[in-house]
Amino acid sequence: AKLQEGWSSCPCCMLMEGSGFVPGQLDTTCHALVGETVVLPCSTSPPAELAKSMLYWQIGTRQVVHFFKNGQDSPEDQDKKFQGRTSLFPDQMKYGNFSLKLSNVQLGDDAEYSCIYKQTESHQTKKSTIKLNVSGK
């Protein structure tokens, strides 16, 4: 599909062919079908040091979708319904790519996701919000 001028080439990368996205009022809106894998985009300027930072992907203020701290994933802090279905791109994180891959998308995954990056020493925080719309097949 040809992208309209001004759109980045892949703000919402579907890993299945034939899927697309529609920009929304939030930072980005993604669309997925049940059972698909989707990448929720999140990027910032390259981090100073990943070992001294935290990255939260969450829904609302309490539901942790994925948590990365001190240079590694922290699955014990993750909501059980997301365990085994989320991953980051470790080789891309040093470049500021904090996108989240969500596998086996479920109807209950339809929500607004926040990507929150905090630097431990400087206390700088960056946040973006991505809406995921899930449809049944």
Automatic annotation (TrEMBL):
GO terms for cellular component: external side of plasma membrane. Transmembrane segments: none annotated. GO terms for molecular function: signaling receptor binding. It is found in: Membrane. The keyword Signal applies. It holds the Pfam family V-set. Its main location: membrane. Keywords: Disulfide bond, Glycoprotein, Immunoglobulin domain, Membrane, Signal. Residues 11-131 form the Ig-like domain. GO terms for biological process: regulation of cytokine production; regulation of leukocyte cell-cell adhesion; regulation of T cell activation; T cell receptor signaling pathway. Gene3D superfamilies: Immunoglobulins. InterPro entries: Ig-like_dom, Ig-like_dom_sf, Ig-like_fold, Ig_sub, Ig_V-set, IgSF_BTN/MOG. This is VTCN1 inhibitor. The gene is Vtcn1.
